[in-house]
Amino acid sequence: MSQAIAVTTADFEAEVIHASMDLPVLVDFWAPWCAPCRSLGPILDKLAEEFAGRLKVTKINTDEEPQLAGLFGIRSLPTVVLMKDGQPVDHFMGAQPEGVVRQWLEPHLGALPEVEAPAVAAAPTAVDADTALAEARRALAESPDTAELKLDLVEALLRKQEIDEARTRLGELPAAEAESDRGRRLANQLAFVQVAQGAPSIAELDARLLRDPDDHPARHLLGVRLLLDGDAPTALESFLELMRRDRKFGDDLGRKSLVQAFSLVDDADLVAQVRRRMSSLLF
């Protein structure tokens, strides 16, 4: 069974640069602690076997090969780079579903067999959000002193992007509700939504960081965008990298963003892992 080939500085030139003169070489930059890397790895191994002879798949452990990661300006894990004729021609960041990876490869390899996507729940539609907001208003009107219903309304307002009213409703909450876990979570969500208003797209922010890895405002906005889009692992990675690069930027904005983001992430193992890495950067 073909799998991604582990590459080091010693054999990088032969396994990647020279090999890419004959066929495209996919390079997966990963690390053992990176949970999204572990979900992407089996997909790349499957493609390595399926497209043996058309595509070479390699992987680089950035913990063991920081010079190679630095050479490519890697700022988030996983990052996948496609090499042709000795040069990088395309890349993506973050764990992606198999179908998305196939679509990304198709322009470089030609049409690929489609993979049947697993059944997923349909995303909430605009009508769903309208209905939820109307129901939250009705329920609160019937029981105006019920704290949980007040929080339900704020959550429905944020879902509908009714930012001004969400801010007002949060400000009207009694201290006990405002300081509750759910109240803090909604306040942090509102803060990120406000930051994201009018911000460039993820693709535009990626392009800015490719041009200048020290574009700290772009890195922060990228983390916010990713977090609100549901890609918590890559979002936290962006905030960590901002913290690592410049603790003074925005009065330690990377660390502050991490602390806020933790309340929005349901994956306790991921939060614990990132907290440990954040702590290691504090001293």
UniProtKB/TrEMBL annotation:
Alphabetical list of InterPro entries matching this protein: Thioredoxin (IPR005746), Thioredoxin-like_sf (IPR036249), Thioredoxin_CS (IPR017937), Thioredoxin_domain (IPR013766), TPR-like_helical_dom_sf (IPR011990)
Annotated source species: Pseudofulvimonas gallinarii
Family note: Belongs to the thioredoxin family.
GO molecular function terms attached to this record: protein-disulfide reductase activity
Gene Ontology BP, a term: response to stress
Domain of life of the native organism: Bacteria
CDD domains to which the protein is assigned, alphabetical: TRX_family (cd02947)
Keyword terms: Disulfide bond, Electron transport, Redox-active center, Transport
Pfam families per the UniProt record, alphabetical: Thioredoxin, TPR_19, TPR_20
Protein name (database record): Thioredoxin
Keyword NADP: no
Domain Thioredoxin: 3-110
Keyword Transport (UniProt): yes
GO cellular component: cytosol
